[in-house]
Amino acid sequence: MNDLGWTTTKAQLYTVPPYAVACLWSILVAYLSDRTRLRGAYLILGCVLCILGYSILITAPPSSIAYLAVFFGAIGAFPGGPGFLSWGLNNAAGASVRAVSSAYIVSVGTAGAIVATWTYLPEDGPHYRKGHSINLGAQVGVGVVAAFGVLYVKWENQIRERGGRDGRVQGKTEEVVGDLGYRHPSFRYTP
To answer: Can you tell me whether residue 185 is helix, strand or coil?
Structure first.
C-alpha cells in the first residue's frame, strides 16, 4: 500500500476491503468445496488468482491496478490454509493419522509466515519485487503440489475401484482390517 503513495493511516484503511472480500470469498470457497466434495480444484483456482495478483504487482507501476492485484492475491491465498487442512484431514483415516496430519499441515503452513517476514524488507520498498517474486514462485509450487495431489488421488481411487488394493484385507483378522484406516481398500480419497 505504501508504494501507492498513501499515508500510513490511508494505507491501513485501504487494507480493509481486500481482507473483507477475501474473508467472504473464503467462506464461499469452503461452502462450495464441502458441497462438491472437491478440495484440490479450489486450491488450484486460488493459486491461479494469487499468481495473477503477484504477476500484476511485480510488473505494474503503483496504481489502482496494483491495488486490484492485492484483491487477487488475498482472495487466492486466504482459502489455501483451511483448504489444505481440510483436504489433508479428509484423506487421513484413523485418529492418530488424522492428529499427526493436522499438526504437520499446520506446521508447514505456518512456515510461510516466517518466510514472509524475511522477504519483504524495507530496503526493497516501495515495490517489493523480491517479496512478490518469492510469493509468486511459492504459489506456482503450491499449484503444482495441488495438481499432483488431485491426479494422485484420482489414480489411487481408480486402482481401488478395480480391486487393486483388496489384497490388504485378505487373510487378515477383523481387528487388523479395522485398523487399516486410509489403507483400507474401501476408503476413497477426496480429490
So the answer is: coil
Core vs surface per residue 49-83: b (16+ CB within 10 A) or e = bbbbbbbbbbeeebeeebbbbbbbbbbbbbbbebb
How many Å apart are CA 136 and CA 131, to the nearest integer?
9
Instruction: State phi, psi for 24 to the nearest 5 degrees.
Output: -65, -40
Helices 16-36 and 64-77 sit at what angle, rounded to 10 degrees? 40
Please state which CATH number belongs to domain 2-183.
Answer: 1.20.1250.20
d(CA 91, CA 106): 15
Note the pLDDT tens digit of each residue in 62-103. 788 999 999 999 999 999 999 999 999 999 998 899 999 999
CA distances, 48 to each of 14, 34, 76, 93, 107 (Å): 24, 20, 7, 30, 24
CB 91 within 8 A of CB 153: yes
Which of 1, 4, 29 minimizes the C-alpha distance to 13? 1
Exposure of 177 by Cβ count < 10 A (0-12 exposed, 13-18 middle, 19+ buried)? middle
Cell of 57: 504487482
